[in-house]
C-alpha cells in the first residue's frame, strides 16, 4: 500500500510542536533571538523529543524554543501556513490544529490578534492547496485559570470561521475535570465543540469525567480506557472519537511500545479511532509515518483504513460541506 498517496485526516496536532527548523532560524534572526546554532539539523535536535522520554517533562521541554519565536502576528501566520502546507503536501485533506493563545502574549499580542493570525495562515494555505482545516483553542491546564473565559470570548467571532472547538491540554492530574466544568459549559454556550486531553498520563476515570462533566465529544489519546470498563463503555455508547497519537504515546510512555497500543483493539471493537500526529516536529513524524506505523504494526487492511478514515470524517468538527468533500476520497 502506498501510504503517502492515501487521503489522510489529522484531528490532533499542536501548532507549537510542529515548526520547521529553518523557520525557527529565520524567525529568531528577524526577532534578534540568539540561537546556539544556525544549522537546521542542530535546531531540529533541540525540538525533537527522544523516542522514549525518561519523563513527560523531557517531552514538554521541547516546546520552549518554538514558543520563543511565536510571539508576533507575522510569525504565527507563517507557522500556521507552513503547517497546513506541509500536511497538504503529504495528502492530508483535513487538519485540525490546536494551540494555546495564552502562550503567545509575551510581546503584548491580544488573544484576538493571536487567533486572527493563525486563522489567516490556515486560510492562505486552504486557498493554495487541496486541504481544509480548523483551529481548536487549547487551554494549558497549569496556566492561570482566570483568563479562560477571555480566551473563549476572543475566539467567538471566529467560531465557524476557522475556529471550531475548545480543548484542555497540559499535565493530566487525576480528577482534573471537576475544576473546569463551568469553563467548558461556557465554551459550549458560545458555540464551541469540545475535545479534551484525557487518559494519556492519567486514569480512565478522567476520560469518563471529560465526557460526563465537560461534554467532550472527542478525547485526546484516551489510551487509559482499556483499564476502565465504565469509561470504555461510555466512549463506545456515545461514539466519542478517540484521537490516537501513536508515536507521541510511546515517547511520553503513555504506552510502553507501539505494539502495546490499544488502538487496534479499540478499532476492532467498533470504537471511533482516529490516527493523528500530536506534534510533527517534537514527535519527529508526519501523518504518512503514523499511518504507516499503525498499518504495518497491526497488519491492517485497506478496509480497516477506510473505516478509520471514515470515522475521522465523522468525528471532524468540520462543516457538512467539508465532510461531504472529504468522503469523496474514500
Ligand atoms: Zn496533544
UniProtKB/TrEMBL annotation:
<feature type="binding site">
    <location>
        <position position="14"/>
    </location>
    <ligand>
        <name>Zn(2+)</name>
    </ligand>
</feature>
<keyword id="KW-0546">Nucleotide metabolism</keyword>
<feature type="active site" description="Proton donor">
    <location>
        <position position="200"/>
    </location>
</feature>
<dbReference type="GO" id="GO:0046936">
    <property type="term" value="F:2'-deoxyadenosine deaminase activity"/>
</dbReference>
<keyword id="KW-0479">Metal-binding</keyword>
<dbReference type="GO" id="GO:0009168">
    <property type="term" value="P:purine ribonucleoside monophosphate biosynthetic process"/>
</dbReference>
<feature type="binding site">
    <location>
        <position position="12"/>
    </location>
    <ligand>
        <name>Zn(2+)</name>
    </ligand>
</feature>
<dbReference type="GO" id="GO:0009117">
    <property type="term" value="P:nucleotide metabolic process"/>
</dbReference>
<dbReference type="GO" id="GO:0006154">
    <property type="term" value="P:adenosine catabolic process"/>
</dbReference>
<feature type="binding site">
    <location>
        <position position="14"/>
    </location>
    <ligand>
        <name>substrate</name>
    </ligand>
</feature>
<keyword id="KW-0862">Zinc</keyword>
<dbReference type="Pfam" id="PF00962">
    <property type="entry name" value="A_deaminase"/>
</dbReference>
<feature type="domain" description="Adenosine deaminase">
    <location>
        <begin position="7"/>
        <end position="328"/>
    </location>
</feature>
<dbReference type="GO" id="GO:0004000">
    <property type="term" value="F:adenosine deaminase activity"/>
</dbReference>
<comment type="function">
    <text>Catalyzes the hydrolytic deamination of adenosine and 2-deoxyadenosine.</text>
</comment>
<feature type="site" description="Important for catalytic activity">
    <location>
        <position position="221"/>
    </location>
</feature>
<comment type="similarity">
    <text>Belongs to the metallo-dependent hydrolases superfamily. Adenosine and AMP deaminases family. Adenosine deaminase subfamily.</text>
</comment>
<keyword id="KW-0378">Hydrolase</keyword>
<feature type="binding site">
    <location>
        <position position="278"/>
    </location>
    <ligand>
        <name>Zn(2+)</name>
    </ligand>
</feature>
<feature type="binding site">
    <location>
        <position position="16"/>
    </location>
    <ligand>
        <name>substrate</name>
    </ligand>
</feature>
<dbReference type="GO" id="GO:0008270">
    <property type="term" value="F:zinc ion binding"/>
</dbReference>
<feature type="binding site">
    <location>
        <position position="170"/>
    </location>
    <ligand>
        <name>substrate</name>
    </ligand>
</feature>
<dbReference type="GO" id="GO:0043103">
    <property type="term" value="P:hypoxanthine salvage"/>
</dbReference>
<dbReference type="GO" id="GO:0005829">
    <property type="term" value="C:cytosol"/>
</dbReference>
<dbReference type="InterPro" id="IPR006330">
    <property type="entry name" value="Ado/ade_deaminase"/>
</dbReference>
<protein>
    <recommendedName>
        <fullName>Adenosine deaminase</fullName>
        <ecNumber>3.5.4.4</ecNumber>
    </recommendedName>
</protein>
<dbReference type="GO" id="GO:0046103">
    <property type="term" value="P:inosine biosynthetic process"/>
</dbReference>
<feature type="binding site">
    <location>
        <position position="197"/>
    </location>
    <ligand>
        <name>Zn(2+)</name>
    </ligand>
</feature>
<dbReference type="InterPro" id="IPR001365">
    <property type="entry name" value="A_deaminase_dom"/>
</dbReference>
<dbReference type="InterPro" id="IPR028893">
    <property type="entry name" value="A_deaminase"/>
</dbReference>
<dbReference type="InterPro" id="IPR032466">
    <property type="entry name" value="Metal_Hydrolase"/>
</dbReference>
Amino acid at each position: 500500500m502506498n501510504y503517502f498517496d492515501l487521503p489522510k485526516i489529522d484531528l490532533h496536532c499542536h501548532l507549537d510542536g510542529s515548526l520547521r527548523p529553518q523557520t525557527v532560524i529565520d524567525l529568531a534572526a528577524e526577532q534578534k533571538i540568539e540561537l546556539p546554532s544556525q544549522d537546521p539539523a542542530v535546531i531540529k535536535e533541540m525540538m525533537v523529543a527522544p523516542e522514549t522520554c525518561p519523563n513527560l517533562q523531557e517531552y514538554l521541554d521541547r516546546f520552549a524554543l518554538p514558543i520563543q519565536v511565536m510571539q508576533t502576528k507575522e510569525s504565527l501566520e507563517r507557522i500556521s501556513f507552513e503547517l497546513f502546507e506541509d500536511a497538504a503536501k503529504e495528502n492530508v485533506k483535513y487538519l485540525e490544529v490546536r494551540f494555546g493563545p495564552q502562550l503567545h502574549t509575551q510581546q503584548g499580542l491580544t488573544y484576538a490578534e493571536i487567533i486572527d493570525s493563525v486563522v489567516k495562515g490556515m486560510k492562505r494555505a486552504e486557498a493554495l492547496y487541496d486541504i481544509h482545516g480548523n483551529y481548536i483553542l487549547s487551554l494549558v491546564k497549569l496556566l492561570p485559570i482566570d483568563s479562560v473565559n477571555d480566551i473563549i470570548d476572543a475566539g467567538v467571532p471566529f467560531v465557524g470561521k476557522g475556529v471550531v472547538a475548545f480543548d484542555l491540554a497540559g499535565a493530566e492530574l487525576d480528577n482534573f475535570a471537576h475544576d473546569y466544568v463551568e469553563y467548558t459549559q461556557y465554551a459550549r454556550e458560545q458555540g464551541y465543540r469540545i475535545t479534551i486531553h484525557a487518559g494519556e498520563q492519567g486514569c480512565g476515570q478522567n476520560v469518563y469525567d471529560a465526557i460526563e462533566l465537560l461534554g467532550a465529544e472527542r478525547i485526546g489519546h484516551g489510551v487509559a480506557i482499556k483499564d476502565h470498563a465504565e469509561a470504555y463503555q461510555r466512549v463506545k455508547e456515545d461514539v466519542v472519537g478517540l484521537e490516537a497519537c501513536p508515536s507521541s504515546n510511546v515517547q511520553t510512555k503513555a504506552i510502553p511500545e507501539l505494539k502495546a497500543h490499544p488502538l487496534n483493539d479499540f478499532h476492532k471493537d467498533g470504537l471511533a479511532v482516529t490516527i493523528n500526529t500530536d506534534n510533527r516536529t517534537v514527535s519527529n513524524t508526519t501523518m504518512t509515518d503514523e499511518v504507516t506505523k499503525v498499518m504495518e504494526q497491526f497488519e491492517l487492511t485497506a478496509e480497516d483504513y477506510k473505516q478509520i478514515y471514515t470515522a475521522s470524517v465523522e468525528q471532524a468538527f468540520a462543516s457538512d460541506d467539508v465532510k461531504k468533500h472529504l468522503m469523496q476520497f474514500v
